[in-house]
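Example 5.3 — Putative 5xTM membrane YitT family protein
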Amino acid sequence: MPGAMETTPRHSLLEDIQGLFVGTLLVALSVQLLQSAGLVTGQIAGLSLVTAYASGIGFGPVFFAFNLPFYWLALRRVGLAFTLKTFGAVALLSLFTELLPNLLRIEAMHPLAGAILAGATAGAGLLALFRHGASLGGVGILAFWLQDTRGIKAGWVQLGFDAVVFALAFAVIPPVTVLYSLIGAGLLNVIIATNHRRDRYIAR
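Solution (predicted C-alpha cells):
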C-alpha cells in the first residue's frame, strides 16, 4: 500500500532501549555458548573470539576495541542515530559477555549443539537489533561502504573476511571444531537472510 512506510509510527525511545537490551543479551548468550564449546563465528565477533582464545584477553574488551574504527564509517554512511544505537549495542554486548559467565555457567556441551544454539540465539538477537535501527558494527558497515565507493560487492567483502577469520581459527582450535563453527555461522546467516525483510516488518 503506497505510503504505508510513511504512516507507520516509529519505535519509541523505551521500545528501542528494550530492543537493544534484549538483542544484545541474546547475542551475549550466543557468545557464551560458543566459548563453552570452544567455537568461533564470523565477522568481528569471530575475530574477537579467535583473538580471545589466542591471547587470553576477554571477548568483551577485544570486541569493543575492534569495533572502534568502524563508527566513523557508520556516521558517514548511515547517520547519527544508527551510529549511537550501534555504539550502545556494542558497549552492552561487551559488558554482558563479561558479566554473564559469573551468572550462568555451562559445564559441558557438544560442539554441534553449541553451534546450533549459538547460531539461533545470535540470529534472534541480531534481528531485534536490526529492527530497532542498530547493529553490532564491524565488517558489514565497511562492506557496504566499499560497495558504494569502490564498486566491490558487499557480500564478497564479508565472505572474504569470514574466510580469513576461519582460516585463523584453525591455528587456535581443532579443525573439527572449526567445521562445527561453520555450521553455526551458516545457520545464523540463514536466519538473517530469511527474516530480515522490510516487506514483512514495517515498523521503524
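Remark. The chain is about 75% helix and 0% strand.
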